[in-house]
Design goal:
The protein is of the alpha+beta class. The chain contains three helices and six strands; from the N terminus they run ααββββββα. 29% of the residues lie in helices and 30% in strands. A six-stranded antiparallel β-sheet has the order 1-2-3-4-6-5.
Length: 125
């Protein structure tokens, strides 16, 4: 697994310890699936096997639906997931769904989230 350094992650999240902790918790859930590579861009960190399946980014604006200190987890699935955790789902290509999930605390990272991450990982292979 190609992992980003702690320093790189800390800079990406603008030295926000809470967001760094959330990122690392999600990264640990992703690592349970198997070998993945991490990629950093200007606005997101992505995870891939043969193709990218998960992205983590910070919302530009916070508010009622995006609390201060949250991060967004985007997962690519082959179906539209029916979950209250998904705040938006779009189908950019037939049979490829992108789901945006707001993560504001560690309680959001439950068994349902692990199952969605596993499904996205499997879809990327």
């Amino acid at each position: 697994m190609e992992k980003l350094s702690d320093e790189t992650i800390f800079r990406f999240f603008r030295e926000d310890d809470g967001r760094v902790r959330l990122f690392k918790s999600i990264r640990d859930m992703i690592a349970l699936q198997g070998e993945v590579s991490e990629h950093i861009g200007k606005s997101q960190i992505s995870f891939s096997t043969k193709r990218r399946f998960a992205w983590i980014w910070m919302p530009l604006r916070t508010g009622k639906d995006k609390p201060e200190g949250c991060i967004i987890l985007t997962l690519g699935l082959r179906r539209k997931a029916e979950s209250a955790k998904v705040v938006e789902a779009v189908e950019p290509y037939p049979g490829r769904w992108t789901h945006h999930i707001v993560i504001s605390n560690s309680k959001d990272l439950d068994c349902e989230m692990l199952a969605l991450i596993e499904e996205a990982y499997q879809a990327s292979n």
